[in-house]
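User: Run a structure prediction on this.
Assistant: Running it now.
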Amino acid sequence: MNKVIGIIAGSLRKESYSKKISEAVWAMAPEGFEFKLISLADLPMYNQDFDDHNKVPPAITSFRDEMAAVDGVLFITPEYNRSVPAVLKNALDVGSTPHGKSIWSSKPGAIFSNSPGNLAAFGANHHLRQSLVFLNVPIMQQPEVYISKVNELFDETGNLKEGNTKEFLKKAVDSYIKWFKINTAQ
């Protein structure tokens, strides 16, 4: 049976570079693995009253169920103001609640950050790591994946161009799979 790896793009923008990278990575799933794109588009902002008063919106229940069913997760994120986008932080909060029922705990993950600038979303990458440590998500340490000048990497149809970045992403995916197998004793 295939292991399922969820791919979460930390952006809602229609032409998001994170979404485009997610689609390119999705196509790199090796034999024995299924990569699943998980949308954050319909996820409402978390409010503890949802759980406290048993009025959890269907989109939150659906997201929690979808994430509970995956074996690992790849976070592909841009950077907003030197941190993670609100939509991604919200997904972490939604999945970590109610207390004692986190869907994140022990799911091996990796972070691929991207930016049109030279810093390649370094701040977002490391802020996300901080949250994931608390959520008990083991994160692949190497290779670190920072993708700079992301706005130059796609052709006119939105596909990742052949070249160094595509090769690097493939190596990063392969490294994640190897690391995943070691960390789940598969």
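The mean pLDDT is 95.
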